[in-house]
Amino acid sequence: MFRWDLGSGADLRVLELRHAEEFLAFVSANRDYLGRWLSWGHTIQTVEDSQAFIRRGVTRYAEDGLPWAGIWEDGCMVGGLLFFPLEPLPRATEIGYWLGEAASGHGLMSRASRAMLSLAFDELGLNRVALQTQVDNVRSCALAERLGFTFEGIRRQSWVNHGRFVDMAGYAMLAEDWRRIKR
Ligand SMILES: CC(C)(COP(=O)(O)OP(=O)(O)OC[C@H]1O[C@@H](n2cnc3c(N)ncnc32)[C@H](O)[C@@H]1OP(=O)(O)O)[C@@H](O)C(=O)NCCC(=O)NCCS
């Protein structure tokens, strides 16, 4: 099973159904913080909702080898990342990420994202990882840029958040970008 030491007492592990209660507790404790940007921050209310969310990740991982992962720091779940389904021909996917409020602002997601990008490019041989974020999600845009993603443009009103159409900033990293960044 995929497990990645992120240093400073943090690690990245594949989300499994046995984590459903812990994931629900994490979401409940960070509902407003996550729910501002992620619809599931509000919709995951019960352990069954949590299981259904994790089950999607488990199924996708089995199908295409791209994990949904939790981040643990000092034994507590503090965030996670996921990959969207693999597009086989262009060997492409999209990444998503979230942290609890207390874990934000310390560089943890930068480290975790690099681990997931290394998995995607170095181990699974993907050629492109996209990233989409609301244009006004300043922390998420800053993270994309800090990681070295290239801004590719704005998809106007391509998402709905809290009942209103929102503009999404599109970023992507190619395998050749990753190799250059790593040097
Ligand atoms: C998007 C999100 C993951 C970004 O988290 P983050 O904490 O800003 O990202 P990091 O963990 O990489 O931390 C970076 C911050 O730590 C600081 N930092 C401290 N030490 C650092 C280090 N060694 N390396 C990198 N950054 C470091 C950086 O300066 C930065 O802070 P700043 O933005 O105030 O300058 C987080 O805001 C979040 O989960 N939000 C809610 C859910 C969400 O929006 N998800 C994305 C939907 S598209």
- Our Rg estimate from Cα atoms comes to 16 Å
CA-CA gap between termini: 28 Å
The CATH architecture classification is 3-Layer(aba) Sandwich
Assembly category: single chain
Count of individual beta strands: 8
Specify the biggest β-sheet. Answer: 8 strands, mixed
**Lateral arrangement of strands in the main beta sheet:** 1-2-3-4-5-6-8-7
Q: Kindly report the name of the CATH homologous superfamily.
A: Gcn5-related N-acetyltransferase (GNAT)
Determine and state the CATH class. Answer: Alpha Beta
Class per helix and strand makeup: alpha+beta
Ligand species: coenzyme A
Low-confidence stretches: none
Helices, by number, come to 7
Amount of helix: 25-40%
CATH topology: Aminopeptidase
Morphology call? globular
- Number of domain modules: 1
What share of the residues does DSSP label as strand, in percent? 25-35%
- N-to-C SSE string, H for helix and E for strand: EEHHHHEEEHEHEEH
* Mean pLDDT value: 97
